[in-house]
């Protein structure tokens, strides 16, 4: 079994500006850094065997802040990347018409859930019996929880920035 603390990255400039980030790198705001530092203080007494992050900058930066009090490095993986929003990437979210068809290059939910399954399998293969902090993104974190609990994506509550959820895999 793997004890997983699943974290969403701290607030970013694009979060504040309501821009669809997708798989862009992203930059933490000052508030996002403070959110990560506060979470690091809460987690500093926890036993953690490994820190894993999406290979996108906003998650790496958040994870490095969390790992620092533990003196550990951060392993990165594309399995934790945010959903690829294709042609919607970079768009102002409130201006996206929910009735307009999505571009063909948006990552499908089955593909996203397959990546989430691959991440869970990766953790079980490499970290059995260990405690892992994994920093990802809103939608991939939702997919990981949906796969783990056997729920539909819509039935998993949205994670806020620098929120942590505990799962036993």
What does this structure look like?
- By secondary structure, this protein is of the alpha/beta class.
- It is 35% helix and 15% strand.
- The protein contains five helices and five strands.
- It has helices at residues 13-16, 30-43, 57-67, 109-126, 138-149, and strands at residues 3-8, 50-54, 74-77, 131-136, 164-168.
- A five-stranded mixed beta sheet has the order 3-2-4-1-5, with helices on both faces.
- α2 packs parallel to α3 and α4 (109-126) packs across α5.
- The mean pLDDT is 97.
Number of helices: 5
Poorly predicted ranges (pLDDT <50, ≥5 residues)? none
Strand content: 15-25%
Q: In angstroms, what separates the terminal alpha carbons? A: 5 Å
The H-and-E topology, N to C, reads as EHHEHEHEHE
Q: How are the strands of the largest sheet arranged? A: 3-2-4-1-5
Q: Mean of the pLDDT scores?
A: 97
User: Tally of extended strands?
Assistant: 5
User: Biggest sheet, in brief?
Assistant: 5 strands, mixed
Helix coverage percent of residues?
25-40%
> Which value, in Å, is the CA radius of gyration?
15 Å
Decide which structural class fits the backbone: alpha/beta
Shape descriptor reads: globular
Structure summary:
By secondary structure, this protein is α/β, with parallel strands linked by helices. The chain has helices spanning 13-16, 30-43, 57-67, 109-126, 138-149, and strands at 3-8, 50-54, 74-77, 131-136, 164-168.
Fill in the keyword field for this structure:
alpha/beta, 5-stranded mixed β-sheet, 15% strand, 169 residues
């Amino acid at each position: 079994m793997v004890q997983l603390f699943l974290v969403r990255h701290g607030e970013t400039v694009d979060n504040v500006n309501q821009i669809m980030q997708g798989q862009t790198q992203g930059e933490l705001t000052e508030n996002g850094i403070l959110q990560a530092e506060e979470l690091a203080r809460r987690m500093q007494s926890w036993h953690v065997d490994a820190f894993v992050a999406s290979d996108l900058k906003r998650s790496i930066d958040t994870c490095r802040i969390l790992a620092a009090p533990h003196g550990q490095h951060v392993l990165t993986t594309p399995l934790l990347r945010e959903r690829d929003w294709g042609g919607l990437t970079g768009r102002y979210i409130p201006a996206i018409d929910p009735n307009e068809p999505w571009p063909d290059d948006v990552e499908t939910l089955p593909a996203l859930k397959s990546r989430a399954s691959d991440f869970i399998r990766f953790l079980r293969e490499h970290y059995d019996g260990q405690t892992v902090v994994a920093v990802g993104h809103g939608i991939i974190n939702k997919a990981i929880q949906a796969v783990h609990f056997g729920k539909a994506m819509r039935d998993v509550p949205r994670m806020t920035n620098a929120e942590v959820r505990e799962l036993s895999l």
